[in-house]
Amino acid sequence: MLARLFKLAYTLDKKGYYSEAAEIEKVMETLAKRTGLNVEDMVSLANHFDEVGDTKLADKFDAMAKAAAAE
Fold first, then answer.
1. Alpha-carbon distance 11 to 69, whole Å?
2. 23 lies in which domain range?
3. pTM value?
4. Burial of 2 (0-12, 13-18, 19+ CB in 10 A)
5. Span 22-61, pLDDT tens digits
């Protein structure tokens, strides 16, 4: 999910929807701060999980980010 959010922000930015892309990027930055990772590392991990098809790890990573955000 996190990787897809980042890709969506990139796509929106390329299509000229700058304010929408910026809002998604703010969410990504907030999640990164709360999980203690920088945005690039967080996206790399999410991308890796998506690419190898390990949905359990991708879901676990997303759950960790959500739990950290709830604290």
1. 25
2. 2-70
3. 0.52
4. buried
5. 888 887 777 777 778 777 777 777 777 667 766 666 677 6
Per-residue DSSP letter, 65: H
Give the chain's domain count: 1
Return all residues near 6 (Cβ < 8 A) that are at least 6 apart: 24, 28, 39, 43, 46
Residues whose CB falls within 8 Å of the CB of residue 37, separated by 6 or more in sequence, listed in order: 45
- Separation of alpha carbons 35 and 6, rounded Å: 16
Tokens read off for 42: 């967080």
Distance between CA atoms of 54 and 33, rounded to whole angstroms? 24
Is residue 50 within 8 Å of residue 58, measured between CB atoms? yes
DSSP state of 36: T
